[in-house]
Amino acid sequence: MPREILLNAFHMNTVDHQAFGLWRHPRNRTRDYNKLASWTELARILERGLFDGLFLADVLGIYDVYGGSPDAALKHAVQVPVNDPMLLIPAMAAVTEHLCFGVTGTLSFEPPYTFARRMSTLDHLSEGRIAWNIVTGYLGSAALGMGLDALAAHDRRYDMAEDYMAAVYKLWEGSWEDGAVRRDAEARVFTDPAKVHAVRHDGEFYKLDAIHLCEPSPQRTPVLYQAGSSGRGRGFAAAHAECVFVAGTTPRVLQPTVADIRRRAVEQGRRADDIAIFAVATLIIGRDEAEARAKLADCLAYGDHDAALTQLSGSTGIDFAAMALDDVLQHVRTEAQQSAVDGLTIADPDRQWTVRELAEHHVLGGRGPLLVGTPESVADGLETWMDETGIDGFNLAHVLSPESFADVADLLVPELQRRGRYKTAYRAGSYRRKLFGRDRLAPPHPATGVRWG
């Protein structure tokens, strides 16, 4: 029986996310990113299309690697201005019943104590529909903004992440016992003090001695996403993540990453299917091939190659402004997203990318595939990626928002349902229950080892 495809919408609380220059398109609503109505409208469209979730990207800092200046990012609206994604979620949760929300939170710049409270609050307000995409940051400008001299080295950031996770697990899982909250008006007891405990953590980077400020939320620990595919990132994902976000330009590039993450998870004592893996993809769908190709040409007319290279410079740590358009990208090791460089160089030794080709590919959708065609041909493409890579679903980037997602809901989803590859109704319950059939993390996940009792 064919596997059901999971679909997330991939978005960001900014003007231009991964369709560079398309903010100028007259049908693109991303210019209204700072108006709440645009987000509640999007949430309703996604729920109509039975999307599993809305994955909200985020980045702290400004892309200032390209040309050694933030000017290009500011001029072309390359993920700046960018607002806090977490503040959008309660409003979108209020107008939906089942749509779930994965939100990116950079752990490098916030104490576990306050961050744990914010995620518990979102889990309460969404009635258990929240996930955290764990990132450590990759822009030096963010470190300077936080008063640091420089961004910590790549692997050192993962050392910090391990310590951070140990701290937040204790807050979410080990501070309040089940049954601590009584809500007994007659006895005048809201919480039984004997069932609430201070947790202590004395790590290399983070220390705390505190009671978690929130009563247990529906999931306690939010569903855990992770988006790093370097060697160190895969190891972190295998230990902690329930969902992993990956990127690859071809199935051949992506499949070894997927297999390695699952292998590492099994080595950690987990099952290979304890992790749901999502790949980024961008879809342009027409009712016939001519309409799809006309949409592509229309969007490419607004594409901004300088903006694409500005973002790619920041994410890879390579200044493409210092290279000629016909120069070939060589493998280098930086302190930014190492998996981004690896995926464009050593992951496919038969493919060499020039700077010009990178700009042309990256301008619509980033480092994943761009599938253009009818609902039938796009569904064929998604099935091929599923079957050849072993992924579980896709984070779908938009070209025009909310139009790209409405096309998925109205044109693609019925075709996937006809093939038996997509659900026809939402499952009840929390985000974790919808994905894995349970509300709480299960052994041998490390969070379960710090539960009270």
Word description of this protein:
There is one protein chain. This protein has 453 residues and is an alpha/beta fold. The protein has a single domain, classed as Luciferase-like domain (TIM Barrel). Helix content is 37%, strand content 15%. The protein contains 15 helices and 13 strands. The chain has helices at residues 36-48, 71-76, 89-94, 112-125, 140-145, 154-174, 231-240, 251-267, 289-300, 305-316, 338-344, 355-362, 375-389, 403-418, 431-436, and strands at residues 6-12, 53-57, 100-106, 130-135, 181-184, 189-191, 199-202, 207-210, 223-226, 243-246, 276-285, 370-373, 393-397. The strands form three sheets. The protein has an eight-stranded parallel barrel with strand order 1-2-3-4-9-10-11-13, surrounded by six helices. α8 (251-267) crosses α13. The longest helix has 21 residues, at 154-174. The mean pLDDT is 94.
| Estimated helix fraction | 25-40%
Q: Please outline the major beta sheet.
A: 8 strands, parallel, barrel
User: What number is the mean pLDDT?
Assistant: 94
Which structural class fits the helix and strand makeup?
alpha/beta
| CATH homologous superfamily (4th level) name | Luciferase-like domain
Report how far the terminal alpha carbons are from each other: 41 Å
Q: How many distinct helices?
A: 15
| Backbone CA Rg | 22 Å
